[in-house]
Amino acid sequence: MIAAAVLAALALACAVGAWRLTSARWTWRAPRTAILLWQSLGVTWGLATTGALFAYALAPYGAGVVHGLSILLIRAEFDIREPHDAIRLCALLSGLTLLAVLVAVLVAAGVQTLRAQRRHRMLLSLIARDEPAVPGVRVVDHPGAAAYCVPGLRSQVVISAGTLDLLSQDELDAMLAHELAHARERHDLVLLPFGALLRALPWAAVVRDAQASVALLVEMAADDRARRFCSPKRLATALLRFGAATSVPTPHGALGATSGQNVMTRVNRLIKPDLDLPAHVRYAILTASAALAVSAPLLWLLPA
Question: Which stretches are transmembrane (predicted)?
């Protein structure tokens, strides 16, 4: 029962931590560090929640979650001799259901995203063209403003003809640097589990807020990488021009520079950047994130 109690407390702590983190503003000063913390919270919450149910259900075996599940699999039976055994059976079925749902929605989201990206690459091969002024970038003949990347092993950065007319050369370079950051850092994989969790728990406000927070942090992380190679004010100006123009929605499975509803927040951050978090604070958060990520798997091995 100790393992079940500790895992339940850990799951509750992750939920409270996620709730508090959605309103935190220090994350804007270190988006990459905050993203790692978000990932640790998400993984730990899933393993701690299912682990608490399994630990309670398998407590009579006294072997922990992992070994208890192996014993149950070998015996292929669950004895119900007393009333509380029925409660344990419900906990076991709930744990299995929750784990199956979390894995299923993650796999389904991944498959849908990969299919959408593959379909869009095929479409681009038919309608997009190369432009000498922007080598390595695919251009679509559309008057609206569009700039996005299709991530993957063969990532592609796409802009519209309207974007070429809308932005100056410096602004275009800044926008392309932002999209290349999305592609190189595979931000689609960062967003995938949070989108999948939102599908599994669409009624949970904290899950919606978490997904929105991570999406904003991903854009800020791409902004930070882009401003290594361009003027932050040029990127801010490009974002404002996109906001005032007729923008084309970002296709499913792609990442766009103006995705989301927080463009002005990013513009203000680019124009008046806050000081970065001190190095020792970042290292402390990274250490805590790593410890959090390994805590639930270790507790799965703790005897009941």
Answer: 86-111, 283-302
